[in-house]
Amino acid sequence: MELLRFFTAGNVDDGKSTLIGRLLFESDSISTDIIETLTRQSKLKNANQSLDLALLTDGLRAEREQGITIDVAYKYFSTKSRKFIIADTPGHIQYTRNMFTGASNTSLAIILIDARYGITEQTKRHSIIASILNIPNILVCVNKMDLVEFSETIFNTIKSDYQSFSKILELDNVSFIPTSALLGDNITKLSTNMTWYKDKPLLNFLETVNIHPQNKNENPRFQVQYIIRPQTKELPDYRGFAGKVLSGNFHCGQEVEILPSNQKTTIDKIEFNQQEIPNASSGSSVIFHLKDDIDITRGSTIVPIDQLPKTSKEFSAIICWMDSSEFITGQKIIVQHNCNRVLGIIKEIQYKIDIHTYDKIPSNGKIKLNDICKVIIKTAQPISYDSYAENKNTGAFILINENTNLTIAAGTLD
Amino acid sequence: MNNKQYDYLDDLESEAIYILREVAGQFERPALLFSGGKDSICLVHLALKAFKPGKFPFPLVHIDTGHNFEETISYRDNLSKNINEELIVRKVEDTIIKKKLQDGTGKFPSRNNLQTYTLLDTIEEFEFDACIGGARRDEEKARAKERIFSVRDEFGQWDPKMQRPELWNIFNGKIHKGENVRVFPISNWTELDVWNYIKRENIELPSIYFAHDRECILTEQGQLMNTNKFVKIDPSDKMVIKKVRYRTVGDMTCTAAIESKASNVDEIIDELIKTTISERGATRMDDRMSEAAMEDRKKNGYF
Predict the structure, then answer these.
(1) Which of A7, A65, A339, A397 to mutate to test the interface with B (most CBs of B within 10 A)?
(2) Strands A108-114 and A137-143, sheet pairing
(3) Which of A332, B81, B203, B239 is the 20 to 30 A CA-CA neighbour of A134?
(4) What is the reported pTM?
């Protein structure tokens, strides 16, 4: 069975929460006691309503009171072929950072468009974020088709509008489905109201969509998280480097280089669950043993000697600012690149990205909450990375305010 | 190349091991909160995979309400002996005496809220800066909103509106002195995932998870409550003997049994696939207090 992580983006009234609720409901993923509770809540909210599926995802009291989604909600369901993890992200501009959060780990985006209004500013914003985060699959659900008399013409107009707008974004795979989440059209089975649509209904689409390999560059990368040294009578010299294979494959006997210290050695053994294994592939959490006794710390990167990443103290990146406090020129920041932390500063703001047009706007020297900017960062020690466009697992980082400890930005490296 | 058939449990396992190692790498005094339930048993299993042949970089900590099932306690003691790792037990009973707290009252006296006091005292006593817990996002709607690294203030409080963004697999556990982080490595697992994993890894569980005959009180809401010395039995109570098992293992006073014939892991998985009732809905009295019961408890320092 495969695992598909996807996120949904849409605004308050696009019916996003309803769509997820419908997906869970129709795939028999909601328990009867939860349905009872929801029905009771739905009646409290609106006496005429039998079951408000949106209430399923709005987990916080404030969300239920205001009828909006504030933070990412994670939902889980599975069918015979796949397990799904949904990150339901808020669509409003003030929650751009939450959307970034929910979207960062996913391999598919569902972008909702209200059939009555077509492409709006927020559609563009969500698509631009999906593009910056390099989401490999985009599914546009033209929702509320019941309110436009299930019109094929309207669906096709929105589709071609989206295609012409999204050209500049270089999105890889874009698909379109006309839906009515409220009535369940094209969710688990093809709609009888839209016989002109002959492709897959939503659930079937999710079950069969090709989960593209995440990275264009699958060069082997391993980062050391923790050093295991039992120092017992039985194992006096055991020194294992625990971490995760971020991409590619490693094998015993492979010649490797440790970065950023540039020392060369050979993989002696790879261990998992106290057993030696001949190789380790992307995504596995294992322990490496190296031939030579060299200086390695948490955050060191291990790579094959002939497939080196970039290693630098200065790099350019796109960042999304997530802190309510504005950026202060010259402020010291902590760059966390997977588990490696180094001190740094934002040396230069090259431009700001208009979140609705994708235009580059000259910077006024400020970075505010939800701003997306191209910057140059300088660090005290070098980091070893690949460009995010080629390798998501080694091209992403966060910025931490060293005083407040808050995560203040998320970034993708050039 | 990986010759093994791809299994989504490998993904979930690797993610959890990665998170456990991040705790080891980022914190000075972490702890693993161990309740004796299936989720924290899985955490211990994952920690073995993450750190062996080294020692755990954290002790197991059990906040003992005094209302635990005997089977859970003996399982706990055996486990810590078998894996040779440190176990710290702190009792709610002692906190009640020390802090002159009002013990749970009523027919099914719950110490659920009281264990938060003991937990916070224990965190203070040992200066724990991170507490690993087995909570899962699919359990409850407030939990569905929580981060994997969930920062708590000096009072242990969770502020759902001020959560740190959590991106990719990059975890920011930086805190000020006095604050602590609750870490949930199996956030993305469902109840069924946990059972599939228990099956695949052949993990031993306390016997109360499997079907057995038990005398219970059949409550007006239709729940099967265990009889024990903490529960007041009234003459009007309807007593029944049923074949039951526990789907979650919490306190004897607030965890209901479910009727079941499932006597092994395969049968339990089969039963779960067919069931239409949620895990907490079937077994917990504590979440039924209000729509936001869990959210409120978490805001006050509950894990």
Answers:
(1) A339
(2) parallel
(3) A332
(4) 0.89
